[in-house]
Model the fold of this input.
Amino acid sequence: MNTCLFCESKTSGYFQKWCPQCRALKHQILLWGDRIYEVVNSVMCRSEDKQNLKVKMEIKKEIENKEYNLRSKETKETPKKKD
Done:
């Protein structure tokens, strides 16, 4: 058994240089060319400012959810007055 040249896992045969997953990636790179790198960088990789923005968005969502839960608890606890 050989090891894959890319991920270094075991290949399925003696004369194969790539595992099935890496062979599929290699095929996509050959088909799409440099577009693959653009897609991976824009989708899978985030710059530091985008990471910070994502953290702020997640924190904002969490705060909004907590505020909503507090408001809904307050409305449940306060009894309605009857005239």
User: Anything to note?
Assistant: The radius of gyration is 26 Å. The chain has three helices and no strands. The mean pLDDT is 82.
